[in-house]
Amino acid sequence: MTESSVHTSPGAAVRPTPAVRHHDHSAPVLSTLGLFTVLLGAALPLIDFFIVNVALPTIDRDLNAGPALLELVVAGYGLAYAVLLVLGGRLGDMVGRRRLFLVGMAAFGITSLACGLAPDAWTLVGARVAQGAAAALMLPQVLATIQAATRGPRRARAMSLYGATAGLSMVAGQILGGVLVAAAPMSSVFGESAGWRSVFLVNVPVAVVGLILAARAVPETRSDRPAPVDVPGTLLLALSLVTLLAPLTEGRAAGWPLWTWVSLGLFPFSAYAFYWVERRADRLGRVPLVPPSLLRLDSLRRGLALVVPFSIGFGGFMFVIAVALQQGLRMGPAAAGLSLAPMALAFFAASLAGPRLIRRHGTRVVTAGGLIQAVGVVVLVLTVHFAWQGLGLWGLLPGVAIAGLGQGLQLPVLFRIVLSDVPPEKAGVGGGVMTTTQQAALALGVATLGTLFLALVPGLGMRDALVVTLLAQLAAVALTIGLSLRLPRTVA
């Protein structure tokens, strides 16, 4: 069925007939190559959130950035990404998810080039903000396309692969960043800055390949009844996220000036205003940015409740471990990145086994994953406390591998749970809500656990500050274990 045939009857735009449903479910089919392509699009934004962690010291030396601007290199990307994700999902529902995926991929490649060629720190910050906005156009289309162009076991397998890709990308970003910074050849053009520039420039050829593949293999899908952009909701969601995340990410480096406290004071008011506007729009028959009906879905609400503490702990750990290994143990960027390779391998292996385990044990797999992750964090605490001097890759291996195994049993299942009951016509919005929640929580983890760690270092030293921060992460893991007991026993 072609897109034009869906709209030949005026009634088709109002009443969802079986033919219209066929357009969104059966006509678009996501091939294996198409799935690989959209998963590539899912990997790039998450890799780039973490890839700069191990490159920050060299960026600081080369551009004389200072702590506050270094924080903005990370936070500018994360803020733009989180703020615009739900809007990106809505736009994909309206104008076509494949079209927005292509636009986002092209913009991501161009902004990555701008980051890699940035002559100074402020230009790099601006390019990172634009890169985050490009990522927000691209990523929501991935989940929405999977929801709209797959069914049954194929959808379950695709969702598991998406979860595996998301978790693996977050770890692989840090590994890849370390390797690129250390291994980038000296350039007559860039000189010593070739290392950190390569972590951005590597995206350019990948984006070109992604564009070629997407044009050939990704089917076009869109909502049968697209809604207009909710401007008040979009602005208030942006205000809510900015007033929370901007002061938390910038406050410590900037010395907690007055604006950070004013911003935090505004956050609860802007968040309530967003909720009120969305609820009122729903009552008036409009389509809000985040429909309250989505939040009434038990699977989505309970799944998101776990995504938040999981992502806070994950994001905080990845930032803190990069600082601790490089500044505390004086590891080079490559060694610091490769120390997390066992976590990535264990995560990937667990996520591949996930679908079979879910069929047999249901969502208790998430509880088991939380318990395994807790064991891994405890092993890391003991390792750091008793073997800090001379600690290297082999000493870290047991703790990070066990933690990665547990995480791999949690994240892919949580993604499936969150989206299991979201109707296909709201796939873009549902994907945007989930990825916004995840991204905001990752940024919140960097801000909270990162600030805790850096605040403790002067008084306790690097080792004990890391131990305390790991214990804080353990508390977040314990919360996910408790919340997992409230999940539905089966996953659709």
Description:
With 492 residues, the chain is an all-alpha fold. The protein is built from 20 helices and no strands. α8 packs antiparallel against α16. The radius of gyration is 22 Å and the shape is globular.
Topology of helices and strands:
Layout: H1 3-6, H2 18-25, H3 32-50, H4 56-63, H5 66-95, H6 97-116, H7 121-149, H8 152-183, H9 194-201, H10 203-217, H11 231-254, H12 258-283, H13 292-295, H14 298-328, H15 333-338, H16 341-361, H17 364-386, H18 393-419, H19 427-460, H20 462-484
User: Mean pLDDT across all residues, rounded?
Assistant: 83
pLDDT < 50 runs, ≥5 residues: 1-25
Please compute the radius of gyration using only Cα atoms. Answer: 22 Å
Derived from helix and strand composition plus strand pairing, the structural class reads mainly alpha
SSE string, helix = H, strand = E? HHHHHHHHHHHHHHHHHHHH
Helix content: over 70%
Strand residues, percent:
under 5%
**How many individual helices?**
20
